[in-house]
């Protein structure tokens, strides 16, 4: 794989009037990476993409592509290609004309264009569909045509703005693997925007988690999932149970917190916050539903939680137990279905057990909206 | 029961409605083929095509059509360009200003055409003088002024048509083109313009028709280039001939023709699109056999019927000679006219006789009184009777009786009654 062209954002600020869409973003994207911006809608991730593609000039800071400052360079002069959320295929052009639009601009002959279109159509597994109109294709086919059109321009960086959001679930999952494969084949940098953590986790080399214009964490998928920096990152990526409390004691990388309703519990301080938390600070402890196990009755200690079961549900691969939790929120426990029998605990108190490495402690902060 | 009554009344309503809409057109079209010198449907005289011939020999009408076409073309170009610019501006402008901008740009439609005409004339005359140009300069040219004057409000119509389409345009398409390396000009030409083409065509047709039929603005600006409407209005002042009906018929026929043509084309596109959608990949690759023009296309069939009818009519017109019929009608008219003259004469005769009889009765009582009618101050010097003698008067009287050759042998003549006694 070629090294590819990297993209760097340095102290990037983007304002619309008084509204700050992006606040002091610093991102280094390596050449050839599949990089995702993950965040809820309205968090500024599309704004960053438009700044990279050149439709928007940053208010402050720099966008560097391949180390070159892009200020003042229009979208048609940047080595980027953008795949729009609604794809923006040209409705009046046939598929092959759509794909080779960039060649038409550079003055290639119709014969050359046709040849290149056929190559790209083969690559996206749509041979012989070149004479159709975009409206005559299915959603997934249109998706692939949009990718081929962007690749035809031979960009150094491909930008994708939630391109899968309009597809149905099955197709979306299929396109994830396909996108990842195309990226590996062409070896250029992909910058991917999504609010779907599943998409981000499965495809990306690195992920930036964004909240209201601020980048909370940049790391690979495993780190984001297992070792979140902030309460937002912990609650936005995947399902998580939160326990609010105050830090009572710090023991190296672990801490004892007195929670509001579950007594004193022990947790691991997340890597980025080690050394930054002090006794008496408000903190949040996060434990994934699948990290709990049911303990024998009467067990107690600093890694046991006792709670009353509200209701239960059987999901096939897992069995979910919802118990009373902190601040009106339920604690969710997912037990893998390994063929064992499940007792009905509704209305009873149960004791849950967790391992310290699965309980992550971060400073108290804003949670992601449900 | 009630339902069928409702259905019948709907049909009755439809008939009345279409009579109201199309009746005048039908009647006028028919008058174009009647040889009567005044455009009328009854009495039907002879089938004739002479009014078409006359129409095409009328230099003023032909000149008017020519001017109308030139001005129409100019107005189309100017109005569509201005309308497109206005429409683009409307989508780009700062949202808070949009309502105000829209009002301003729509205003010319609400201003009376007369006002637009006068203001165009005055404004450009002023500019002309400011530049120190003569009365024969380009700026006071009738065609220039009319195009400018008409475009002031026709551009607004065009803008309305174009805005409707532009609102469905996805700006992301332009951005996509830019992103793929196109310049703004290329994105406009290759993406936006093709998208706008149908609306531009509609706007152009609308602009041309509006220009062609315009009278009240043009009447101030036409200068030495009267358009067709101006010429017609001037002609009608001196009485109308069926040649104008013939012109109207041609316009109606052309309208029907183009409407059918357009309909047939649209229908065909629809059919082709449907065929493409259901076609498989191999069929498309092998250039699928598209449905022929006429399959399931009513408008196309009608169009062909219409074209055949036109050719037949034109063919007949060149071969047909209504000369004999017209001669017959003329002869008949001459006879009718003669008869009417004689009837008139007879009436006059009767009145004269009656008066004479009355005078004879009264004559015994007051013979000395002069003639009561000639009581003007000039003492009868201008009266024709005073020039000739009584004898002449008498001779003319004696001449009239033989003209009493009515069919009834003078049985109703009161004089004959008297003589019999």
Descriptive labels:
heterodimer; A: 370 residues; alpha+beta; Rossmann fold; OB fold (Dihydrolipoamide Acetyltransferase, E2P); 2 domains; 6-stranded mixed β-sheet; 5-stranded mixed beta barrel; 20 strands; B: 421 residues; mainly alpha; MetI-like fold; 17 helices
Question: What can you see in these coordinates?
Answer:
The complex is a heterodimer of chains A (370) and B (421). Chain A has 2 domains: 7-226, Rossmann fold (3-Layer(aba) Sandwich), CATH 3.40.50; 240-363, Beta Barrel (OB fold (Dihydrolipoamide Acetyltransferase, E2P)). Helix content of chain A is 23%, strand content 34%. Chain A contains 9 helices and 20 strands. In chain A, the strands form 4 sheets. A 6-stranded mixed sheet of chain A has the order 6-7-8-3-9-10, sandwiched between helices. Chain A has a 5-stranded mixed β-barrel with strand order 11-12-13-20-14. Chain A is elongated. The mean pLDDT of chain A is 88. Chain B has 421 residues and is an all-alpha fold. Chain B has 2 domains: 21-39 and 242-331, no CATH class; 52-239, MetI-like fold (Orthogonal Bundle), CATH 1.10.3720.10. Chain B has helices at 2-31, 50-57, 59-92, 95-110, 113-130, 142-166, 171-179, 184-213, 218-221, 228-237, 242-278, 281-285, 298-319, 323-363, 384-387, 390-399, 414-420. In chain B, helix 4 crosses helix 6, helix 5 packs across helix 6 (142-166) and helix 11 runs antiparallel to helix 13 (298-319). The interface between A and B is medium-sized, with 30 and 23 residues. Chain A: InterPro entries: AAA+_ATPase (IPR003593), ABC_SmlMolc_Importer (IPR050093), ABC_transporter-like_ATP-bd (IPR003439), ABC_transporter-like_CS (IPR017871), Mo/tungstate-bd_C_term_dom (IPR008995), P-loop_NTPase (IPR027417), Transp-assoc_OB_typ2 (IPR013611). Chain A: It is an enzyme of class 3 (hydrolase). Chain A: GO terms for molecular function: ABC-type transporter activity; ATP binding; ATP hydrolysis activity. Chain A: This is Spermidine/putrescine import ATP-binding protein PotA.
